[in-house]
Amino acid sequence: LGERLQATMDRIKSKGKVTESDVKVMMREVRLALLEADVNFKVVKQFVNQVKERALGSDVMQSLTPGQQVIKIVKEELTELMGGENQKITLANKPPTVIMMVGLQGAGKTTTAGKLALHLRKNFNKKPMLVAGDIYRPAAIDQLETVGRQIDVPVFSLGDQVKPQQIVTEAMDHAKAEHLDTVIIDTAGRLHIDENLMNELKDIKKIADPHEIMLVVDAMTGQDAVNVAESFNELLDITGVTLTKLDGDTRGGAALSIRSVTEKPIKFVGMSEKMDGLEAFHPDRMAQRILGMGDVLSIIEKAQANVDETDQKELEKKIKDQSFTLDDFLAQMDQVKDLGPLDELLKMMPGANKIKGLDKMQMSGKEIDHVQAIIRSMTMQERENPSVINASRKKRIARGSGRSLQEVNRLLKQFNEMKKMMKQMTSQKGKKKNPFGNM
Ligand code: GDP
Ligand code: MG
């Protein structure tokens, strides 16, 4: 293929047609992106099937930018899968609001308890109290007291010799007596889920009757996070999730898995170790992050380039056997219509840029519409073989398209010259005179 024609074709991107197998290629990339982001494979499978179904819908396949349409669907479905919108923390109608922090050791319960206290005081004008319910981890109580001092929030503690159930019972009374309207209970974690811990947590739940059971999960743990979330949810019926350590380099696929496995909303994300490092969870932003939007986009664009090539070959063939019709012309215009400077249109048409005078021609969007209207007013036979268009047909076409007879004539003349040019192009194959180089 000649360099110039090649260059011309390169510009005809964002094609109109995508086949089922193109969508499959795209979905393979999406699938990989999700797996790389640590999304559970079962979730990925289900998700990809769902998206595929939508992507194969006719409006997508026939859109001018199917690649982008697919991306849009992927993003929309991911967002929906993670709950659609941000869900706020549950507050009690009648104080105190009780929030119970649960999760494995090191997930970020203690840190998040402090962050939440600060968040509720700052944004909801609450008077929170932290409860030191982890009596097992060495220095756990000290850690919570340090947190409390940092944000100037009282910490209720009975040391590490009193059972957590007792601590929580007394803490509830204390909060009422002190008119503290928010009680945040820090609990113990284990390296793995075990029965003793779960029983203790169940007891605390019964005693405190929390409005929010906030599961804290470390985003960096990836796949494991799913099992953890599933177990905690089964045993405690959690009400929300905070995903911590998203400031790390994880893509955060755990968010998607957790949400689809537990069907409980992720409400917050931890973005730093600091007390102000808590942010509301936004499903759409997370979708972007999980997909590594840039990566996937470029891969899908590549997949599209292959699609373009198929169409390009078809076009090339049509030019060679001189079967390029007005109907093809119409389709070409559709494709370049949204590509920017519209006076470039004719230059993009194979051969057209060599036709005398055409390069001077400026085509506005309106003019393209006019040309298209004229072609659309032709019968298929006329589009395939314009030589049948006699004077009376011309009149009919002009009337049908609402354009003047001169415009119809001009279009037919241009098209004829273009065909002539294409003929020259192919018959001069290999010769130096060929303006398109080696074909
Ligand atoms: P717990 O065992 O569940 O109470 O976890 P901690 O609250 O003690 O947190 C464990 C470690 O993770 C601590 O070093 C925290 O500073 C750190 N951490 C917690 N949340 C975040 C976060 O969102 N980002 C980062 N970078 N570190 C965090
Ligand atoms: Mg802790």
Automatic annotation (TrEMBL):
GTP binds at residues 103-110, 186-190, 244-247. It is found in: Cytoplasm. PROSITE patterns: SRP54 (PS00300). It comes from the Bacteria. Keywords: Cytoplasm, GTP-binding, Hydrolase, Nucleotide-binding, Ribonucleoprotein, RNA-binding, Signal recognition particle. It catalyses: GTP + H2O = GDP + phosphate + H(+). Residues 265-278 form the SRP54-type proteins GTP-binding domain. It is an enzyme of class 3 (hydrolase). Its EC number is 3.6.5.4. The keyword GTP-binding applies. Part of the signal recognition particle protein translocation system, which is composed of SRP and FtsY. PANTHER family: SIGNAL RECOGNITION PARTICLE 54K PROTEIN SRP54, SIGNAL RECOGNITION PARTICLE SUBUNIT SRP54. Belongs to the GTP-binding SRP family. SRP54 subfamily. Composed of three domains: the N-terminal N domain, which is responsible for interactions with the ribosome, the central G domain, which binds GTP, and the C-terminal M domain, which binds the RNA and the signal sequence of the RNC. This is Signal recognition particle protein. The gene is ffh.
